[in-house]
Amino acid sequence: MNQKTVSENPQGKYRLDRFIEAQKRDYETALREIKNGRKRSHWIWYIFPQIKGLGFSPTSEYYGIDGLEEAKAYWQNAYLRAHLLEITKALLALETSDPTQVMGYPDDLKLRSSMTLFSLTAPDEPVFQAVLEKYFNGQPDQQTVRETAISVEQMRASDAYTIEHFVESKELMYRAADGVFRAYDGWQDKRIAILAGGGNNGGDGYALVGILWKNDIPVTVFQVSDKLSEDGKYYYEDALRNGADIRVFSEETALSEYDVIVDCILGTGFSGEVRGMAGTAITAINHAHAFVISVDINSGLNGDTGEGTLAVRSDLTVSIGYYKKGLFTGDAPRLIGRLCNVDIGIVLV
Predict the structure, then answer these.
(1) 3-state secondary structure of 27
(2) DSSP 60-92
(3) Is residue 117 scored above 70 in pLDDT?
(4) 116 vs 128, 180, 200, 243, CA distance in Å?
(5) Which residues, 6+ apart, have CB-to-CB distance to 82 below 8 Å?
(6) Are residues 127 and 32 in the same domain?
(7) pTM of the entire structure?
(8) Neighbouring C-alpha atoms within 13 Å toward the C-beta of 110
(9) Where are the beta strands (DSSP E) in 75-189?
(10) Coil, strand or helix: which one is 320?
(11) Which H or E element spans position 283?
(12) Domain co-membership, 125 together with 214
């Protein structure tokens, strides 16, 4: 193993040499087969790696990727990254969009798993999502998504680490709001309401107000809590300076006139029973017959377990940074319509 490979995995935590040795033997064969439009030999697990647990053979156990951290280590290795990019681009260069024709069954499913894993690992690199679009109608492998979801505590630690070393918190909040804006293409000519709670989830809502305002899209904000975080207060005051229509939510508030409702009441750190005005607001959203967008997680759900006795039913939930475990368990599957994740530059720790 050369010095560059060692430096990219300094503690030897992940045995990347198992991939390197296998690729030294078979990569050129794999690349040639893909360029010719048909996989014919056996190399899928170490050329297009997948998350551990999707297969049960000794080969799948040996080469399975043990979570996002190992996937990131794989991606950061120059030798492995160059091969993955080259052979993925070769897939995109083929005329066909039939994955079974190229990979055969069940390796077409394994390709989908691998592209999903690396689209989550390296969201700034578009080729993996491009393969999902070309061969799988843009749909990721749901089991891979579930297996790579992280805990609330890991998300909190990663957020803190990123703020301390790389990106200030106000910028992360703006990126979260911008990600929500970009995740939905139906803002124009709609009556929009944002329900904002306290904390950073509410702050995302106030930051979204500014982005909508810059795009000449009117919005009404209902303040469910006035206990704002420091960053939330910053974007709340920015919204006020821009003349935003901000009202206090009450039991008399009617939401039936709105076409789109954005749920920014409670975040992934919430647990227990929903009480007070937050519960009233959640009930009002669920009876409004609007298109509902939940930011990061549906208000009322536990970010780790997905449990919630009273929680928002969404048409679209936009996860921020990384998928959390509670988006796939407990009550979440029956409450979430469509789920997507937006990368905002948080470094996973």
Answers:
(1) helix
(2) HHHH-B-SHHHHHHHHHSHHHHHHHHHHHHHHH
(3) yes
(4) 7, 20, 28, 42
(5) none
(6) yes
(7) 0.88
(8) 25
(9) none
(10) strand
(11) helix 276-286
(12) no
Verify that 190 and 205 share a domain, yes or no. yes
pLDDT value of position 10: 44
Which helix or strand (DSSP H or E) is residue 18 part of?
helix 17-35
Cis peptide before 123 (omega within 30 of 0): no
Q: Can you give the residue range of the structural domain that contains 19?
A: 3-147
Cβ atoms of residues 16 and 71 within 8 Å:
no
Angstrom distance (rounded) from CA 99 to CA 108: 5
Q: Based on the structure, what is the number of domains in the chain?
A: 2
Q: What dihedral do alpha carbons 14, 17, 23, 26 form, nearest 10°?
A: -120
**Looking at the domain assignment, is residue 332 inside a domain?**
yes
Whether 319 contacts 346, CB under 8 Å: no
Query: Is the confidence at residue 265, as pLDDT, over 70?
Result: yes
Asked whether residue 179 falls in the same domain as residue 316, the answer is: yes
In this predicted structure, the answer to whether residue 2 has a pLDDT above a threshold of 90 is no
How remote is the C-alpha of 264 from its chain's centroid? 17
Evaluate whether 65 touches 10 at the Cβ level (below 8 Å): no
